[in-house]
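Example record

One chain of 75 residues, shown exactly as stored in the release files.
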Amino acid sequence: MNLERITVDPAIMSGKPCIRGLRVTVANVLRQLANHRTPEQIVAAYPYLEAADIDACLGYAALRVDDEELAVSVP
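Predicted structure tokens for this chain:
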């Protein structure tokens, strides 16, 4: 996993984690994946992104989930 693709800069998107300093947040990519868009669809919509950027977002999210315990309710 190449987390070097994830950048945090207070001057870009209010310091939210972004992809390679672009104005595309990790959260935006993750929301799209959660809404059943494929990595190929995301890259087609954002041609300046690469498949490795999507992988980096997933890797970043996996590491962040380990940072905190999240309360999840099970029906």
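Notes: The chain has a mean pLDDT of 90.
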